[in-house]
Design goal:
Keywords: Transferase. The chain is an alpha+beta fold. The protein has 11 helices and 13 strands. Helix content is about 40%, strand content about 25%. The protein has a domain of about 140 residues: Thiolase/Chalcone synthase (Peroxisomal Thiolase, Chain A, domain 1, 3-Layer(aba) Sandwich). The strands form 3 sheets. It has a 9-stranded mixed β-sheet, sandwiched between helices. The chain is globular and about 60 Å long. Strand 9 and strand 10 form a beta hairpin.
Length: about 375
């Protein structure tokens, strides 16, 4: 990292999930029952749900916990009983704000940052929209300055959370007094489709709901472990625009994910990582957005990563599923908890996430351990 950039850091992180928990085995059983008249699809669902690396997820929609006969999202009987896109957006409007608020308050508290000092607010979501939006609601309910610079990043997909971190670093690099609050809210389960098509069933197998937040600013001496931010890099991969598609349909948003995505990542991403690290040592920390088990497996095989290095990504995937843009901050939070609990020293690495395009966002990170009381007293004495 450049010396000038080393003082820019993620000062605090917060995460939150809805109250309703989806058990993977139970969800698979209920969806299989809904597909009982389509045995090929039912068998594929059983295999897919077992192999995707997810054990639990969370949802804002209690109807998704109902039996197959009563779940409107699994219905195979009549389109009239399936929630329309308008109804799903009403649910999004009602549920997204409190979930985002909870994550944001945790991030501010974790970083010991006063809401009044926030200069920029970046809100991120691809699973719903309304106006006045999430950004306006957060300003009012968090007590941010009405003059805060609001930057909504909408409908950019899974990579948008890390895009927001990269943008925040650039903002603080140009103004060291800036403090950027990022809030990502994704209610992915609202878009589960009553379909037997493999593309729809694939999305239903591992997406979950969640919100995450962080504060990016100039790092000062404190008692919290921080992730300092270095160079960032964004790339639109060639010949891959149709590999990940997310469109608005009549019954929620329609998602298509190609099975070629891990192969494309394996083919194109090593050159981009080399561009980011510029001949430096192989990263020790790997904050990988778990867009699917295959993505983690591909990078693990390419770089000979240990189980410990991919554990944060696999743990988040197992416990929460893929929460689109919100997921990368869950991974960084999980990684930081592990580093602190092991008493790890300064460690460098990268964070990377993938989204429609195909696009890849990546940034250098460096873990800065918590300052001990002895070190704090010594610093104060020298000051």
């Amino acid at each position: 990292m450049k010396q000038a950039e080393a003082a820019i850091a993620i000062l605090g992180i917060g995460t939150s999930v809805p109250d309703y928990r989806l058990d993977q085995a139970d969800t698979s059983q209920r969806l299989t029952q809904a597909l009982s008249e389509l045995p090929d699809s039912a068998r594929w669902v059983k295999r897919l749900f077992k192999q995707c690396g997810v054990e639990t997820r969370y949802t804002c929609e209690p109807n998704l916990l109902e039996s197959a006969d009563n779940c409107r999202y699994f219905s195979q009987r009549s389109d009239h009983s399936v929630p329309s896109t308008a109804e799903r957006m009403e649910t999004y409007k009602r549920e997204s704000v409190p979930l985002g608020l909870k994550a944001a308050r945790k991030a501010l508290a974790d970083g010991k940052v006063e809401p009044s000092t926030i200069t920029h607010l970046i809100t991120v979501s691809c699973t719903g929209q309304f106006l006045p939006g999430l950004d306006a609601a957060l300003v009012q309910q968090l007590g941010l300055a009405v003059t805060v610079n609001r930057i909504p990043l909408n409908f950019l997909g899974c990579a948008a959370g890390l895009k927001a971190v990269c943008l925040s670093r650039q903002i603080v690099a140009s103004d060291s007094s800036a403090k950027v609050l990022i809030v990502c809210v994704e209610l992915c389960t609202l878009h589960i489709q009553p379909s037997s098509e493999r593309e729809a069933l694939f999305g239903a197998s591992f997406f979950g709901d969640g919100a995450s937040s962080c504060v990016v600013g100039a790092a000062e001496s404190n008692l919290h472990g921080l992730f300092q931010l270095g160079n960032d890099h964004s790339i639109l991969l060639p010949d891959s625009a149709e590999e990940m598609v997310w469109e608005v349909g009549n019954y929620g948003f329609d998602l298509y994910l190609s099975t070629n995505i891990p192969k494309l990542i394996g083919r194109f991403i090593p050159e981009q990582i080399e561009h980011l690290i510029r001949g430096g040592h192989k990263p020790e920390l790997w904050a990988i957005h778990p867009g699917g088990k295959g993505i983690i497996d591909t990078l693990e095989d390419l770089y000979g990563l240990t189980q410990e290095q991919t554990l944060p990504s696999r743990t988040v995937l197992r416990n929460y599923g893929n929460m689109s843009s919100a997921t990368i901050l869950f991974v960084l939070h999980e990684m930081r908890q592990g580093l602190i609990s092991r008493g790890s020293g300064p460690t460098a690495g990268i964070a990377l996430a993938f989204g429609p395009g195909l696009t890849c966002e990546m940034i250098q990170i460096a873990y800065r351990p918590p300052v001990t009381l002895e070190e704090q007293l010594l610093n104060e004495a020298h000051a």
